[in-house]
Amino acid sequence: KAGVTQTPRYLIKTRGQQVTLSCSPISGHRSVSWYQQTPGQGLQFLFEYFSETQRNKGNFPGRFSGRQFSNSRSEMNVSTLELGDSALYLCASSPGTGGRTGELFFGEGSRLTVL
Amino acid sequence: GENVEQHPSTLSVQEGDSAVIKCTYSDSASNYFPWYKQELGKRPQLIIDIRSNVGEKKDQRIAVTLNKTAKHFSLHITETQPEDSAVYFCAAYDNNNDMRFGAGTRLTVKP
């Protein structure tokens, strides 16, 4: 079974631009969560999608958005990029039906650098 | 939402020694506590987890303990090896059913 796939793996943008990141979950997984990872800040929760609906959103500005398609693939978008958005963006999938338990399966991440 | 605090942020031990990482959480309704290991340049991967109906779980050199009354749980690694060097994250589900992570502990095992 293929793992979680994220594209692109690396990208460089300049301030003010926007970026779209893609995540393909493990086949059969309906939940996709996004996390921002920066040194010293750990994994900060961005949002979670389940069956094309955003279930929850973390404490990030409205410049961060996402969506999920009928095949469970998910995209996140960051508009008007700022230097502080430079980070590793991790996507994680899970079956999504297990309530408050369940392993998250992470992708390799998309490393965004904003210049 | 859930607030997970993790200590220490860095930990250095000699090969063969034990390492202990501690986490506290705020949501008393949380009942699942996983630990993830992230090696340099790689994705986080689950190494062990514990559910609230048990107090301890072991898997070879790794163990996790949970104290629900005090709302804290710990990761114990015995007989550490250089390949244990990584960043370790604890996590708990918050009341919105989203997994919240601690800030991570960078473990270095010196040969």
Class per helix and strand makeup of chain A: mainly beta
Determine the N-to-C terminus distance of chain A. Answer: 37 Å
What is the chains' assembly state?
A: heterodimer
Helix proportion of chain B: under 10%
- Alpha-beta content class of chain B: mainly beta
Distance between the termini of chain B: 40 Å
Q: Biggest sheet of chain A, in brief?
A: 7 strands, mixed
**What is the H/E order of chain B?**
EEEEEEEEEEE
Considering residues with a beta carbon less than 8 A from a beta carbon on another chain, report the largest interface and each chain's count: A-B, 23 and 26 residues
Q: Which residue ranges of chain B are poorly predicted, with pLDDT under 50 across at least 5 consecutive positions? A: none
Shape of chain B: globular
Gyration radius of chain A, in Å: 13 Å
Task: Explain how this protein is built.
The complex is a heterodimer of chains A (115) and B (111). Chain A is mostly beta strands. Helices cover 0% and strands 52% of the residues of chain A. Chain A has strands spanning 5-7, 10-13, 19-24, 31-38, 42-50, 53-57, 64-68, 74-78, 87-94, 105-106, 110-114. In chain A, strands 2, 4, 5, 6, 9, 10 and 11 form a seven-stranded mixed β-sheet that branches. A four-stranded antiparallel β-sheet of chain A has the order 1-3-8-7, with no helix packed on it. Chain A is globular, with a radius of gyration of 13 Å. The mean pLDDT of chain A is 92. In chain B, 0% of the residues lie in helices and 55% in strands. In chain B, the strands form two sheets. In chain B, strands 2, 4, 5, 9, 10 and 11 form a six-stranded mixed β-sheet that branches. A five-stranded antiparallel β-sheet of chain B has the order 1-3-8-7-6, with no helix packed on it. In chain B, strand 4 (32-38) and strand 5 (45-51) form a beta hairpin. Chain B has strands at 5-7, 10-14, 19-24, 32-38, 45-51, 56-59, 62-67, 72-77, 86-93, 99-101, 105-110. With 111 residues, chain B is mostly beta strands. Chain B is globular. Chains A and B meet through strand 5 of A and strand 4, strand 5 and strand 10 of B.
